Amino acid sequence: MARAGSAVPEEPAPPRRRRKQHSRRQEVLDTAARMFFERGYEATTTQDIGAALGLLKGSVYYYISSKQDLLFELIQQYHEDTRSYFAEILESDGSAVDKLRELITVDTAHTARNLERSTLFYLEWRSLPLERQAVIIEERAQHEHAVQKWIVEAQAAGRIRPEVDPKIASFAIFGMVNSVYRWFTPGGRKSAEEIGEDFADLVLGGLLVPGA
Amino acid sequence: MARAGSAVPEEPAPPRRRRKQHSRRQEVLDTAARMFFERGYEATTTQDIGAALGLLKGSVYYYISSKQDLLFELIQQYHEDTRSYFAEILESDGSAVDKLRELITVDTAHTARNLERSTLFYLEWRSLPLERQAVIIEERAQHEHAVQKWIVEAQAAGRIRPEVDPKIASFAIFGMVNSVYRWFTPGGRKSAEEIGEDFADLVLGGLLVPGA
């Protein structure tokens, strides 16, 4: 993270030290994620995070430039995974319906598996400054467009009902997928992946027995 | 609202004055809803709301006991509508599938039509104290149970696919319905009611052409 690193000496550190810095950074981020998740972003201070990490008061700002940078970095980490599986699905050989099924399954499972970061993302992304929000909005729009394109393709191929409104359907799908952070319990009756598959079946097949 | 009224004299006001107080109260609530929606709950102060209403500094607390009371009252107003159409659907004569369709349609349209209050509800309900959150959680749970019961009934009647998990499906439905506040634009291509119907069709029929 560029800004957070600005207090670090410019000479390249020896590999070992660099690795240590990297894992220390990850520890800072994991602790921040846990505390934001448990207490809320507003209620957690930089000093609280420092104290939980056992940092001396004077060295907190060596690791943490600002609470908002931590929030942004956590949301970025969360989004980087999304970006990578989204790109994989886009490039895959399957039909539009296959891609749709894969995206719903993987996106749901990812949201559920990363509960601290996904909750932070959905509840707190408006706490980011507008230019950082814009990056996220742009990426989300790309995903929505891809889903809409797949629906249109599958309609042309006679696989998806012609009366489905691709735009409304894409919003409905993401609304459903994203909401899993509200109720998912790790270690519960169904795994993140099983819920992802249930969601994909629901979106594609609906509730009703056809013709009944 | 009990607390907000504590500064009001105990003698019953003459009907005319009471009516005036009532509409003034509604004006306070509408202004608060608009300001919370536009600026966010955290960023809006009681004094801001007073100023927007043209209240003198000294009389703000006659109308507004606390920002949190306003939030609670707005969320309560929003929930009162929900409570009333939910009760109507519960008592109606239709089949479980009819009830499900009606709830999805009406709940989506209600969320979209009351954008200021629904946004406030979904983004800020955690700002309420725990005992007030508990009232809302309890009501939400009742709605989820009703939906689960309808799904089980419709499965027994052979109308809903036996492999549907009623609990996961109910969460998926509310996740979808509730998310409409994120993107609905009043005066857009489709009305709140049309989106409600699209959502109900999606949940019940799914995307795919059966058997294709």
Task: Describe the secondary structure blueprint for this structure.
The structure is a homodimer of 212-residue chains.
Chain A: H1 15-39, H2 46-52, H3 60-63, H4 67-91, H5 96-113, H6 115-124, H7 130-156, H8 166-178, H9 192-205
How does this structure look, described?
The structure is a homodimer of 212-residue chains. Chain A contains 9 helices and no strands. Chain A is elongated and about 70 Å long. In chain A, helix 4 (67-91) crosses helix 6 (115-124). Mean pLDDT of chain A is 87; it is low at 1-13. The first copy, chain A, folds into 2 domains: 13-65, Arc Repressor Mutant, subunit A, CATH 1.10.10; 68-205, Tetracycline Repressor, domain 2, CATH 1.10.357.10. Chain A has helices at 15-39, 46-52, 60-63, 67-91, 96-113, 115-124, 130-156, 166-178, 192-205. Chain A binds chain B through residues 40, 42, 97, 100, 123, 126, 151, 154, 158-161, 163-165, 168-169, 171-172, 174-180, 182-183, 190, 195, 198-199, 201-212, and chain B through 40, 42, 97, 100, 123, 126, 151, 154, 158-161, 163-165, 168-169, 171-172, 174-180, 182-183, 190, 195, 198-199, 201-212.
CA-CA gap between termini of chain A:
56 Å
Radius of gyration of chain A: 20 Å
What is the makeup of the main sheet of chain A?
none
CATH topology of the largest domain in chain A: Tetracycline Repressor, domain 2
Q: Which CATH top level class of the largest domain in chain A fits? A: Mainly Alpha
Number of strands of chain A: 0
Please provide the ordered H/E string of secondary-structure elements of chain A: HHHHHHHHH
Compute the number of helices of chain A. 9
CATH superfamily of the largest domain in chain A: Tetracycline Repressor, domain 2
Overall 3D shape of chain A: elongated
Helix/strand/pairing class of chain A, anyone?
mainly alpha
**What is the mean pLDDT of chain A?**
87
- Uncertain spans of chain A, ≥5 residues at pLDDT below 50? 1-13
Helical percent range of chain A?
Answer: 55-70%
CATH architectural category of the largest domain in chain A: Orthogonal Bundle
Number of domains of chain A: 2
